[in-house]
């Protein structure tokens, strides 16, 4: 929230669609939630922020590799089923949590919050059959166009462990903004 607010203050980003979260009337702009993920952000808002920060949204393949590592594990922390010490999911908190609250759930690369908390926009368009038609699996590029953008990682809201698996793909229209979706930028483009 605090990082995104700096982009808004610089005139390079739009405010989130809402200042609230699922259970909090005052969320965005409230210093108590400065280290929480920004929500109610469209795909374009996420791209604008990453560009302002000198970064970019990860492709779907980059996001998944950061979550699974090279060993292809099921979840960012490994193959062990999720539980409340690893991530914010299944309504165990009932809303978002501070970024980095689950260090035991880190990916092989040390990336935090790759499962649960909020769905994350990726750079790619969604096509349900796209990857099955690829002849190379080395950093495949997504489709050139589409209707929906890919989101990854699940969220705090869903009560099913399969939704937070590293390979699960979701899709939303680029202008969609809800309280269970945010984004992350690549550390370096």
Question: Could you please describe the fold and organization of this structure?
Answer:
- It is built from 3 helices and 4 strands, in the order H-H-H-E-E-E-E.
- With 189 residues, the chain is low in regular secondary structure.
- The protein has a 4-stranded mixed sheet with strand order 3-2-1-4.
Detail the topology: elements first, then pairings.
Elements: H1 2-9, H2 43-52, H3 60-68, E1 119-125, E2 149-152, E3 169-172, E4 181-182
Parallel strand pairs: 1-4
Antiparallel strand pairs: 1-2, 2-3
Going across the biggest sheet, name each strand in turn.
Answer: 3-2-1-4
For the report, how would you describe the main beta sheet?
4 strands, mixed
Integer-rounded radius of gyration: 16 Å
Q: What form results from the Cα inertia axes?
A: globular
**SSE order, one letter for each helix or strand:** HHHEEEE
Looking at the chains present, what oligomeric state does this protein adopt? Answer: single chain
Structural class: little secondary structure
In round numbers, the mean pLDDT is 93
What distance separates the N and C termini? Answer: 22 Å
Give the beta-strand count: 4
